[in-house]
Write a structure and sequence with these properties.
The chain is 61% helix and 0% strand. It is an all-alpha fold and 108 residues long. Helix 1 (7-24) runs parallel beside helix 3 and helix 2 (36-52) packs antiparallel against helix 3 (56-66). The model has no long low-confidence stretch (mean pLDDT 83).
Amino acid sequence: DTRAGDPAGARNILRSRALAWEWADGAVPRPLASYGPSYRRDLRRFLWPLLRSRQWQEARRTYAAARPLLPRRRDRVLALVPEPVVWRIRYRLLRQGGRTRTAPSPRW
């Protein structure tokens, strides 16, 4: 349960996903790296409350638990970017791309 604020719950979720990939043994439709954006978002959701509350050791353990799920270095680095910064960058990229639709407002 990640609503309780216990970092062990988040680590258990990440470890169970890594075990599921290990046990799947290639019987999956897409490679693990293609799930990077989803797992990156989950890691950010688990990691940033710990960083805000200055629980450095717990944040380090949570980040280490997610490492098997994020094989690309790019995904591991982008997970460290705070969510408001991600929304700003995404909004600017949409605007520069000439798209008329803007990103929805985040629920902070």
